[in-house]
């Protein structure tokens, strides 16, 4: 049973709804100010280099998350979540002041965005450690589906709307709107009622280095966690490449409109996988559904290779591959949450996010270098073969055969 909430299903559901609402509004804020600041830096410097530096500042914090896992495990998750959202609010208010005063020092803006991105990145492992305290183990998969829709859905919508909002309201106006979203998020998270277990704070500071590495050790020694992490790390490497190649696919088919359609197809596909397909397969076990997701994304990614010269056929198959990608994403975090004890979950989740974050920019760089050196279809084939390999690894894994013992459904 849940600590401090035994027998109070209505309270649990109310608390989880507050978490989902706060996450949705908070992610809208994240999406708005990241895009707004990229546009502002371009206007300020007219330099592609500064855009690159800004994007490094946005991505780099994910690599540093493992440094904070022990702190997440030792402190109140609800209070930490409120603190990181409030910290982002403070930084956005500082950005509003700098923009309003027409300060033209790009380094200051990049530094503030880096700190804001660090707090924003911390919200994910914190919420992942909070969810198991709000729902029962057999509700974790549904909870992850709801959380994924909350943050991915708002990401997609507000990424699409940000350009329109900037043109309508100016960067300053968008930042003011952004500050309002963080006020709502902080107020919503503060209303979560949860009696969290008291943690001991007796560790010596000299043990800090050992503690921040515990998550890596747990991942490396647990067969299921090791397989999940390996699959996610390599997959993010390919997704880094896809961020480059989808632009080239758009050019191949005729221009930016095709690029936009493909980006929309991937977003819609993931959301359909997390909602419609997941609900249709709820009667199956977690293992069966996850294997179907892995097989489906491999199959349809292979079919993109043979449909490469017919845009709408390619686009539909591309969408279907992301439908199954969305299905797999529903199950990954719950499997980690159910495998790891609550006193170590913060360390494991931050280390997991660190490993996954490293390979996304590496994949983007590697495949950007290779883009002019081989046919674009070869990338699709390599991606499909990776998906097929992951399917076979999970199918053969003894640890994964026992995943239904975690009672996630």
TrEMBL record:
InterPro entries linked to this entry: MFS_trans_sf, TM_effector
Membrane topology reported for the UniProt record: Multi-pass membrane protein
Pfam families linked to this entry: MFS_3
Primary subcellular site in the record, as a coarse category: membrane
Localization terms from the record: Cell membrane
Alphabetical UniProt keywords: Cell membrane, Membrane, Transmembrane, Transmembrane helix, Transport
Transmembrane segments: 20-41, 48-68, 80-101, 108-126, 164-189, 227-250, 256-278, 299-324, 352-371, 378-400
Gene Ontology CC entries for this record: plasma membrane
UniProt superkingdom: Bacteria
PANTHER family associated with the record: INTEGRAL MEMBRANE EFFLUX PROTEIN-RELATED, MAJOR FACILITATOR SUPERFAMILY ASSOCIATED DOMAIN-CONTAINING PROTEIN
Stated name of the protein: MFS transporter
Organism: Lactiplantibacillus plantarum
Organism classification: Bacteria, Bacillati, Bacillota, Bacilli, Lactobacillales
């Amino acid at each position: 049973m849940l600590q401090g909430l035994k027998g109070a299903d209505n309270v649990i559901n109310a608390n989880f709804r507050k978490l989902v609402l706060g996450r949705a509004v908070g992610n809208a804020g994240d999406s708005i100010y990241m895009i707004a600041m990229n546009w502002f830096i371009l206007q300020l410097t007219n330099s592609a280099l500064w855009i690159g530096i800004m994007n490094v500042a946005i991505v780099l914090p994910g690599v540093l998350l493992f440094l904070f896992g022990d702190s997440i495990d030792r402190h109140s998750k609800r209070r930490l979540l409120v603190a990181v959202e409030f910290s982002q609010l403070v930084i956005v208010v500082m950005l509003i002041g700098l923009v309003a005063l027409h300060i033209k020092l790009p380094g200051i803006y990049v530094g503030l965005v880096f700190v804001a991105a660090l707090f924003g990145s911390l919200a994910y492992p914190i919420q992942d450690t909070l969810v198991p305290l709000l729902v029962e183990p057999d509700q974790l998969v549904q909870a992850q589906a709801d959380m994924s829709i909350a943050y991915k859905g708002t990401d997609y919508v507000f990424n699409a709307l940000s350009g329109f909002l900037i043109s309508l309201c100016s960067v300053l106006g968008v930042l003011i709107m952004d500050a309002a979203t963080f006020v709502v998020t902080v107020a919503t998270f503060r209303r979560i009622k949860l009696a969290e277990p008291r943690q001991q704070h007796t560790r010596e500071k000299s043990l800090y280095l050992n503690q921040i590495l515990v998550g890596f050790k747990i991942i490396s020694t647990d067969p299921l966690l090791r397989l999940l992490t390996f699959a996610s790390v390599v997959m993010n490497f390919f997704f880094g490449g896809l961020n480059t190649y989808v632009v080239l696919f758009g050019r191949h088919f005729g221009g930016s409109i095709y690029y936009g359609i493909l980006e929309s197809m991937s977003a819609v596909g993931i959301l359909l996988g997390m909602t419609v397909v997941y609900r249709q397969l709820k009667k199956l076990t977690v293992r069966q559904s996850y294997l179907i997701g892995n097989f489906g994304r491999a199959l349809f990614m292979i079919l993109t290779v043979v449909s490469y010269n017919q845009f709408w056929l390619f686009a539909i198959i591309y969408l279907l591959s992301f439908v199954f990608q969305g299905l797999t994403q529903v199950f990954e975090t719950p499997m980690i949450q159910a495998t790891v004890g609550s006193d170590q979950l913060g360390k494991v989740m931050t280390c997991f996010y660190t490993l996954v974050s490293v390979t996304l920019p590496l994949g983007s760089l590697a495949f950007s270098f290779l883009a002019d050196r081989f046919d674009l279809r070869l990338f699709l084939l390599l991606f499909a073969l990776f998906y097929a390999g992951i399917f076979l690894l999970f199918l053969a894994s003894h640890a994964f055969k026992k995943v239904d013992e975690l009672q996630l459904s």
